[in-house]
Amino acid sequence: xxxxxxxxxxxxxxxxxxxxxxxxxxxxxxxxxxxxxxxxxxxxxxxxxxxxxxxxxxxxxxx
Length: 63
Description:
By secondary structure, the protein is an all-alpha fold. It has helices at 15-42, 47-54, 58-61.
């Protein structure tokens, strides 16, 4: 396949709708991540342990 070839993709929603959906789901993902963090505390983990488990900096965990 050459570098200039382009695959055709059928668009079921507009780019604007797609961007809106991504934005909304990113907000949900942040909330879900925070809930996972809280669950870590319920299980007795420290802030450091929870942040390592979730892959976020320890400073972010305090926000």
